[in-house]
């Protein structure tokens, strides 16, 4: 078994619920019987192996399975882990009928039920690929999986937020400036070390923000392992993990997608031999669908890496505070310095001195 297939198996599936993540199952079952259409117990609760931000559970009943996402227990940053926002965006997209997303059943903002806010959605049975080189797939399937992933993002960006009930899902304008401010604040709130490159970026990026030309729903973490693919067909069945979604500039998601070709997983593989689209071919699929053009990528790659550094520093802060939800969090926290350094390298290519 090669490392990629092993990785798919290591992160996929469920396990017994960790002691620190246990919830009151009797309360949960009672709440679901009153709030989830068609629910019939008894209920069995398991925890998914993947996912380290909002703890995620598989809820099995004799008739069907559900997924529960909840806020972590303990002290949290004010705007983090907003499960109500996740629930709202998947509800709105699910109503469109043609976007691949889980069915949103019910949201609970009452901490008294299980100790934190949570929501219930459908369990979509399919495949999650953790290795973007797709070692388990045929060359033909790889090409189609990437095309489906890219076209699904393009489709998301073509919705008019106002027309699908999300006009107030975020402040529409000035997206990058607000995001830079947000992740700088998260970094400061979670700061565990001094990183010179991050400090230079926090000063340079706000002064050089490109003009925003469009407004769309932005997913915020659009990558292969945040989607479920059909069990046998090479197509997206459900896009997951909407925690960072908001209204903003679709260039954020698009350039984050393109940056994945520079990261471990795709950067050092023979794309042609694997029949995976090149970065330019991926951009063309998206641009043909949306009518957008590819910008100068250096500023955007710098921004995306800066944002990831803010996120990983937040994880480091959660480890310090005892609220990180996954052992893999420690690995993520160690990435803050290299991410900041790589971001500064792109910034220099974009003209920073």
Report on this model:
With 353 residues, the chain is α+β, with helices and mostly antiparallel strands. It folds into two domains: 3-122, Phosphorylase Kinase, domain 1 (2-Layer Sandwich); 139-349, Aminoglycoside phosphotransferase (APH), C-terminal lobe (Aminoglycoside 3'-phosphotransferase, Chain: A, domain 2), CATH 3.90.1200. Helix content is 42%, strand content 12%. A six-stranded antiparallel β-sheet has the order 1-2-3-4-6-5, with helices on both faces. A two-stranded antiparallel sheet has the order 7-10. Helix 4 packs parallel to helix 9, helix 5 (175-190) packs parallel to helix 10 and helix 7 (250-259) crosses helix 10 (297-321). The longest helix is centred in the C-terminal third of the chain and has 25 residues, at 297-321. The chain is globular. 42% of the residues are buried. The mean pLDDT is 92.
């Amino acid at each position: 078994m090669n490392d990629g297939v092993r990785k798919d198996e290591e992160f996929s599936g469920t396990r017994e619920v960790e002691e620190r993540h246990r919830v009151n199952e009797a309360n949960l079952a009672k709440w679901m019987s009153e709030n989830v259409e068609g629910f019939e117990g008894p209920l069995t609760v398991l925890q998914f192996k993947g996912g380290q931000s909002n703890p995620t559970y598989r809820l099995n009943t004799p008739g069907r399975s559900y997924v529960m996402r909840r806020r972590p227990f303990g002290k949290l940053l004010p705007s983090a882990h907003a499960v109500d926002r996740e629930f709202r965006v998947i509800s709105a997209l699910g109503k469109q009928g043609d976007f691949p997303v889980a069915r949103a059943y019910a949201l609970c903002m009452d901490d008294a039920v299980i100790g934190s806010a949570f929501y219930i959605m459908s369990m979509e049975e399919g495949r999650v690929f953790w290795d973007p080189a797709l070692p388990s797939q045929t060359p033909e399937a790889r090409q189609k999986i990437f095309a489906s992933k890219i076209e699904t993002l393009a489709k998301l960006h073509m919705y008019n937020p106002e027309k699908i009930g999300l006009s107030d899902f975020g402040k529409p304008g000035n997206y990058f400036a607000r995001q830079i401010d947000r992740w700088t604040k998260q970094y400061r709130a979670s700061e565990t070390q001094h990183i010179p490159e991050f400090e230079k970026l926090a000063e340079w990026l706000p002064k050089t923000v490109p003009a925003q030309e469009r407004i769309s729903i932005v997913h915020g973490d659009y990558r292969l392992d945040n989607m479920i693919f059909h069990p046998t067909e090479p197509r997206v069945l459900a896009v997951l993990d909407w925690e960072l979604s908001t209204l903003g500039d679709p260039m954020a998601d698009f350039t984050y997608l393109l940056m994945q070709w520079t990261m471990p997983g795709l950067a050092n593989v023979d794309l042609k031999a694997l029949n995976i689209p090149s970065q330019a071919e991926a951009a063309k699929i998206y641009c043909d669908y949306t009518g957008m053009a590819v910008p100068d990528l250096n500023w955007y790659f710098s921004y995306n890496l800066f944002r990831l550094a803010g996120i990983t520093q937040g994880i480091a802060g959660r480890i310090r505070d005892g609220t990180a939800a996954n052992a893999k969090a420690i690995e993520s926290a160690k990435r803050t310095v290299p991410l900041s350094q790589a971001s500064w390298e792109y910034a220099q290519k974009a003209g920073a001195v």
